[in-house]
Structure formats: C-alpha cells, structure tokens
Amino acid sequence: FQAEDGIRDRSPSRGLGDVYKRQENADVIDINGNEGKQYVSFKIAEETYILDIRKVREFITYERITFIPNLPEYYKGVINLRGSIIPVMDLRLRFGYEQLDCHERTVIMTLNIGDKLLGLVVDKVLDVLHLPEDRIQPPPETEKVIERQFLEGICEWQDEMLILINLDTLFDQDPSLQLIEETQHSITPIQ
C-alpha cells in the first residue's frame, strides 16, 4: 500500500479490504473503529525507532552537507533545501553508535519541530505504521537519565521492539542549536 505521501504503509492490522481515514492530526481509525496514530519507522544500527509522522516534512537522499566548525560531532552541518538552511543531526552519533559512511540508503528526514526545520540522518527509513496508542508503554528506567529523556515510549510489535523518540526533548535541550541558528542568520543561500 502506497500512502499519499509516497511512504509504504505496513499497518499491523491491515488486511484485504481494510481502509484507513487519515486525519489532519495523524490519528487513524481503521474500519473496525480502532484508534491509533501513524508513526514513521526507521533503523539506526540494528534498532528500530519510530516518530510521530506529523513531525516529518519530507525524506531526502543524503547529499553534501556543509560543515560548521565547533559543533558536536553528532551535527553533520547544514544543508540548503530549496533556500532554507537546515541543521542536520546524525542520530546514529547522537545515540552513541559508531559512525558509518553514508551510502545510497542513507536518508535525511526533514522535521518540523516547533517553528524550526531540522534534519536527521538515519540509516534507513522502513515504513509508516498504524499503532494503537495503548500499545506504547513508558520508557524503562535507565541509569542514564539524559538518554531516557529522549525516549517517549517503547512498543513491542511483531516480535520487534520499537523505540518512540521524543523529538521535542531531543532538540530543546541541545545548546548546539543556538550556535547553528546564529550561523544560519549569517549564511545567505546561493540560489
């Protein structure tokens, strides 16, 4: 099934004849009246992460990123997307995984976080999932409080653990964004 936005939908309860009504707030109701939300699933290393589809603006193939000095290594730099300068974070590095070379399946997800447009480098985008809200459990207690705050929840689905990322917390508590925003104002995109 190809969604309106070009993303394949692998909704868990989907069978022949199932029809979904996509609402503006991304809540979904299937023909059985089950409520849920739509999430984009993607891979970082061997783990599957999900985030609310309402935050995703678009997916673009990995392209040249302009390096900005003095940023943490998990920021790759900025890209010019149709005249908008967008900071790009490598989620693999932000979450403590080893760095990999980018390849043809590496994707930048552009996200709307508040009034900001930001990019996330992920290993591979998988699907759009329809998940009942009651399947998302609070994140487990961990010794690393900082990492736990980036998690909104965990969901076990089809023998796989899905990790729901709290994007607001991930970006709100990042002092590097201040430096990037200051840099953005001094860069004039070349059209």
What is this structure, in a nutshell?
The protein is mainly β. It has helices at residues 91-94, 145-148, 167-172, 176-186, and strands spanning 21-22, 27-29, 35-44, 47-52, 56-61, 75-81, 84-90, 107-113, 116-122, 124-131, 151-157, 160-165. The longest helix is centred in the C-terminal third of the chain and has 11 residues, at 176-186.
Mean pLDDT: 75
Evaluate the radius of gyration.
17 Å
Shape: globular
> What's the helix count?
4
Task: Provide the helix percentage.
Answer: 10-25%
Query: Low-confidence runs (pLDDT<50, min 5 residues)?
Result: 1-25
Describe this structure in words.
This protein has 191 residues and is mostly beta strands. It has helices at residues 91-94, 145-148, 167-172, 176-186; strands at residues 21-22, 27-29, 35-44, 47-52, 56-61, 75-81, 84-90, 107-113, 116-122, 124-131, 151-157, 160-165. Strands 1, 2, 3, 4, 10, 11 and 12 form a seven-stranded mixed β-sheet that branches. Strands 5-8-9-7-6 form a five-stranded mixed β-sheet. β8 (107-113) and β9 form a beta hairpin. The radius of gyration is 17 Å and the shape is globular. Residues 1-25 have low confidence and may be disordered.
